[in-house]
Design brief:
Length: 424
């Protein structure tokens, strides 16, 4: 320090502090130096080796506990202001206050409020549950939380929200889209049920059977494609980019879900055996399934197969190398234009495959298993029947795929694919 002496070793000094004295203090080489003011008993200026100067006051509470609350830093808090604040705090402490305990309690309350915000709890819920969700459901939850719940309620404390907060959120969405409101209700309900079970809230904030009133499920679609429409959509895909073509053809042949096909990865495909194994982590119900690949689809995949070495998680169909396919609305618009098929959704390909399998005489049980549905099997059956039905699934889908192939011109398709493959 500029004054020399014992303070260079980080020791203490008592004296009447002045502004001039404080300005010439140099930081200690090690430890901390403290200067105790003789005008206000208990007021100290602490100096660290980094040059930070902070004010504090030392006193004893009514119960005899020694406390040393901080007051601020110099020069932001001047000497005169520090003395004034120290005197006021000493009066409070003599009156029974404990500023250190009060500050800690206030900080704990702030942390509790921050950790209990809806945004924070949504994140905890997803981290706790996402391992049990399919990729598609996890993606849907992430989008609904990010687009609907967090922007409107995320800043609020979960324990302080009311039923009205949640029902109003759903009601606003209901006025925009009934289907979106139904999805929002299911996501909110799942989150709040988890919150109640985890002890974050004391009672359910949505009526447990309120979906029928707040966001009635949209009537399920009944649209199925005729054979002629299916063939038209197939041939429309022939005129599109190779990855989109493979996407549409694989959808039609496999009866898989849209996102399962869009995110198909190299490690799931065995071109030699002609199989596609969808892992349970990517299936909606968490159960993996292996489906056969018709030569038409294998030819499509060979065209877009990466020429370089790629890992098993390399996604095959995205516009960005190694990513999944996206932009479904644009794909659908182009398919409509080329096929001239109207009033259909991409998911209708899956429903049409299921209807077609029934028309081909495939049993209900085997057709449902081919779509990786388990809801049709009773809990008792699932407990006792552990046959994997892989052969039955392959047989059911192979019959459906042969039917689809009969609807399109195999020879012309193969003739078109061959030169593309040669030039790829």
């Amino acid at each position: 320090m500029g004054l020399g002496g014992p303070n260079d070793r980080g020791e203490t000094m008592q004296r009447e502090l002045t502004d001039a004295f404080i300005r010439v203090i140099r930081p200690p080489a090690a430890g901390r130096a403290e200067f105790w003011d003789t005008r206000v008993t208990g007021l100290a200026l602490r100096v660290t080796p980094s040059g930070v100067m902070s004010w504090s006051v030392r006193a004893r509470t009514a119960d005899g506990k020694r406390v040393r609350p901080s007051l601020g830093t110099w020069p932001q808090l001047s000497l005169s202001a520090a003395r004034k604040r120290a005197r006021a705090m000493l009066v409070d402490i003599e009156g029974g206050a404990d500023p250190v305990a009060e500050r800690r309690a206030a900080e704990a309350a702030r942390v509790a409020r921050t950790s209990n915000t809806i945004a924070a709890r949504l994140q905890e819920w997803r981290e706790a549950r996402s391992a049990r969700w399919s990729d598609g459901y996890a993606r849907s939850v992430r989008q609904i939380c990010g687009r609907e719940i967090a922007p409107n309620l995320g800043h609020k404390s979960l324990s302080e929200t009311t039923r009205s907060d949640w029902t109003s959120l759903i009601a606003r969405k209901q006025r925009q889209s009934e289907a979106a409101a139904a999805n929002l209700f299911r996501t909110c309900s799942a989150f709040l049920n988890h919150a109640e079970a985890a002890g974050w809230i004391d009672h359910a904030l949505l009526p447990r059977k309120g979906a029928s009133l707040l966001a009635p499920p949209v009537a399920p679609r009944a649209r199925t494609l005729t054979d002629a429409e299916l063939a038209s959509i197939w041939r429309a895909a022939d005129g599109m980019a190779p990855k989109v073509r493979a996407f549409v053809h694989l959808l039609a042949m496999s009866a898989a879900r849209r996102q399962e096909v869009a995110d198909v990865a190299a490690g799931e495909i065995d071109l030699e055996r002609g199989t596609w194994s969808i892992p349970g982590a990517r299936a909606k119900n968490g159960i993996g399934i292996t489906v056969p690949l018709h030569p038409l689809v294998i030819a499509d995949l060979q065209v877009i197969w990466p020429a370089h070495e790629c890992g098993p998680n390399w996604k095959l169909l995205g516009a960005i190398a190694g990513s999944g396919l996206s932009g479904f609305s644009k794909i659908k618009t182009k398919l409509d234009e080329l096929s001239r098929v109207t009033d259909w959704h991409i998911h209708d390909l899956r429903r049409s495959a299921r209807t077609g399998m029934a028309r081909l005489g495939i049993s209900t049980e085997h057709a449902e298993l081919a779509l990786n549905h388990i809801s049709g099997r009773s809990a008792l059956v699932r407990v006792y029947d552990h046959h994997d039905y892989s052969a039955e699934i392959v047989a059911a889908l192979s019959r459906w795929q042969a039917h689809v192939a009969s609807l399109v011109s195999y020879s012309s398709h193969h003739a078109r694919i061959a030169p593309l493959r040669a030039s790829a």
